[in-house]
UniProtKB/TrEMBL annotation:
InterPro entries: Cro/C1-type_HTH (IPR001387), Lambda_DNA-bd_dom_sf (IPR010982). Residues 55-110 form the HTH cro/C1-type domain. This is Helix-turn-helix domain-containing protein. It holds the Pfam family HTH_19. It comes from Leisingera caerulea (Phaeobacter caeruleus).
Length: 163
């Protein structure tokens, strides 16, 4: 099969794309993915660390084991383990959607924390990274951790449509 595409058609198609990222490979396969040069990878890893910490504390706050949360969210146990313990792990969109439904927080903001998207107003990412740095790993949430977690829940639960 061959295609006969003229330069004129390409220019018109490019003009329709004006202002949008155009790419090949991963970004073309998943348009929700954005990648910026420079310190983007380091920033994404820090925010994924915060995402993993958030998921861990939310799971514990709900009294769920990893297996129980995986079953409740209908996601793979391995994905959940990677999310909680591996800041280099890039989760898929479905996993984040399922977790947002279980925890009652914004899917868009979880995607921002994961590095799959980049929000114009990403103050919540900085807040989540500060939150992860303040929380210590313990079996039972302390009152301070619960207060920090509740604050982050309210930020992640806010609709992005109103901003």
């Amino acid at each position: 099969m061959t295609f006969d595409i003229s330069k004129t058609w390409c220019r018109k198609a490019g003009a329709r794309e004006d202002g949008f990222d155009v790419g090949a490979g991963f970004i073309a396969a998943d348009p929700m993915f954005t990648h910026e040069g420079g310190g983007a990878e380091e920033s994404s890893e820090a925010s994924r660390l915060a995402l993993g910490r958030f998921i861990n504390l939310m799971r514990r706050d709900h009294g769920l084991s990893i297996e129980a949360l995986a079953e409740k969210a209908d996601i793979e146990i391995g994905d959940l383990l990677c999310l909680e313990n591996n800041a280099a792990h890039l989760p898929d969109v479905r996993t984040l959607y399922q977790l947002s439904e279980v925890f009652g927080v914004s899917q868009e903001k979880l995607m921002g924390l994961s590095g799959l998207t980049h929000a114009i107003d990403d103050d919540y990412v900085e807040e989540a990274v500060r939150y992860a740095a303040k929380s210590a790993s313990v079996e039972v949430l302390t009152e301070d951790e619960r207060a920090i977690l509740n604050g982050l829940i309210s930020v992640l639960s806010e609709s992005t449509e109103h901003k």
